[in-house]
Amino acid sequence: MFISKDRTAIIKQLKEYLCYLKDIGIKEIPCEARVRGQGSGGNSRTGVSPVNESGDIKPTLESVKEELGNCKRCKLYRTRTNIVFGTGNPNARLMFIGEGPGEEEDLQGEPFVGRAGQLLTRIIEAMGLKRDDVYICNVVKCRPPENRAPEPDEISACRPFLEKQIDAIKPKIIVALGNHAVHSLLNTVSGITKVRGQFSYYKNNIKLMPTYHPAYLLRNEGKKKEVWEDMKKVMAELGLEVPKKEEKGLYG
Ligand code: SF4
């Protein structure tokens, strides 16, 4: 097996350092990060997840789901049928994040499958993509009763898992759907009408496009054009072909 000179030197130095630790009485090195089995984004040969920029082990969607478990970290667990974790391509370049599951999503355990979800699917397809090309999830993973807005304590209880999902996928662009997704991801209180259509940054490194939630579009047909303008900016950023002519009713 070929081993580069650099690698040999590193192994030699590591061995010397371990011998030194042993000599001064250190018998073991604590390791907080649990090495997990292979998952999406992990090294399929060694089963070890890659490390992120901070040197921490990068989560995989499987590891995030496993950590979430049968979550009871906020009161939404009491009324849910299913946890709606997220769906799509674990290596997606584009991620759509809504606010929370509705009735149909709660029953099926999948995000954006009701009427608003069907409209989101049409938007994705109008962009020349399939649902399987992107990743779709919500700020909170359990349905708020009567489809009310998620409350601040629920958003903050669920937020670590959303952050880990984003960290696992590392998309090039996030589309934040509606006020709650925008507030949560950008730490802003500005209304969606004010911020939509302009790229911002999630944690200073992932471009984020705020736009209207598809459920809002179902009640306000006239706003579809604005969302399409926002999606054209996303398409341009992803290097996708943007239709030159406006096609009325592009995503019905
Ligand atoms: S909304 Fe999130 S934090 Fe609350 S119970 Fe569901 S999974 Fe847990």
What's the quick description here?
The chain is an alpha/beta fold.
Report on the structure:
The structure is a single chain. With 252 residues, the protein is of the alpha/beta class. The chain has one domain (61-238): Uracil-DNA Glycosylase, subunit E. It is built from nine helices and six strands; from the N terminus they run ααββααβαβααββαα. Strands 1-3-2-4-6-5 form a six-stranded mixed β-sheet, with helices on both faces. Strand 5 (200-202) and strand 6 form a beta hairpin. Helix 2 (61-68) runs antiparallel to helix 5. It is globular and about 75 Å long. Mean pLDDT is 85; it is low at 30-48. The protein binds iron/sulfur cluster. Iron/sulfur cluster (SF4) binds at residues 68, 71-74, 76-77, 83, 140-142, 154, 157-158.
Which key phrases capture this entry?
globular, 6 strands, six-stranded mixed beta sheet, single chain, 9 helices, 252 residues, binds iron/sulfur cluster, alpha/beta, Uracil-DNA Glycosylase, subunit E
* Structural class designation: alpha/beta
N-C termini distance: 58 Å
Element order, helices and strands? HHEEHHEHEHHEEHH
Helix fraction by DSSP (H/I, runs of at least 4): 25-40%
Q: What does the largest sheet look like? A: 6 strands, mixed
Level-2 CATH architecture = 3-Layer(aba) Sandwich
Query: What share of residues are in beta strands?
Result: 5-15%
Q: Which ligands appear in the coordinates? A: iron/sulfur cluster
* Radius of gyration based on Cα positions: 22 Å
What is the number of strand segments? 6
Oligomer category: single chain
Give me the number of helical elements: 9
- Parts with pLDDT < 50 across at least 5 consecutive residues: 30-48
Question: So, the CATH homologous superfamily?
Answer: Uracil-DNA glycosylase-like domain
* Net shape: globular
The CATH topology turns out to be Uracil-DNA Glycosylase, subunit E
Rounded mean pLDDT is 85
